[in-house]
Amino acid sequence: MERDPRQVLTEWLVLASQGGDEQAFTELHALCAGVRFAGAAELTAQLQWGALGFVFLLLMMFLKLWFWLEMHTNRVLRELKCVELLLVARSPASPARDVHD
């Protein structure tokens, strides 16, 4: 059975983020880039550190949104399975079962 690449990526990211906040890496680097930006004397250095900090902030927002969407998808699938089980439990016995009983 071939696995869905999205599921593999999700599992890998969840495993990689265990043991702490999943965004600690990007938050730390965004903070570091912000400090370096404030301490830079030249304009080119400020632009470089500012761009790097902005990229890390975008990455942090993307990760939050992506994890939220994945959790929402899992929640919807779980509820669909519950509804499916309720429908199966409430359905009358199929004709094939009556013949064999």
Q: How would you describe what is shown here?
A:
There is one protein chain. The protein is mainly alpha-helical and about 100 residues long. It is rod-shaped, with a radius of gyration of 24 Å. Helix 2 (about 25-40) runs antiparallel to helix 3. The two termini are about 35 Å apart. The chain is built from 4 helices and no strands. The model has no long low-confidence stretch (mean pLDDT about 80). The protein is about 80% helix and about 0% strand. It has helices at about 5-15, 25-40, 45-90, 95-100. The protein has a domain at about 20-90.
Short description:
The protein is an all-alpha fold and 101 residues long. It is built from 4 helices and no strands.
From the helix content, strand content and strand pairing, which structural class follows?
mainly alpha
Task: Report the mean per-residue pLDDT as an integer.
Answer: 78
Number of helices: 4
- How many individual β-strands? 0
Q: Which bin fits the share of residues in helices?
A: over 70%
Q: Unreliable stretches, pLDDT < 50, 5 or more residues?
A: none
| Euclidean distance between termini CA atoms | 35 Å
Share of residues in strands = under 5%
Radius of gyration equals 24 Å
Question: Which terms summarize this structure?
Answer:
0% strand, 101 residues, single chain, mainly alpha
What topology emerges from the helices and strands here?
Layout (H helix, E strand, L loop, with lengths): L4 H13 L6 H16 L3 H48 L4 H6 L1
Helix pairs in contact: 2-3
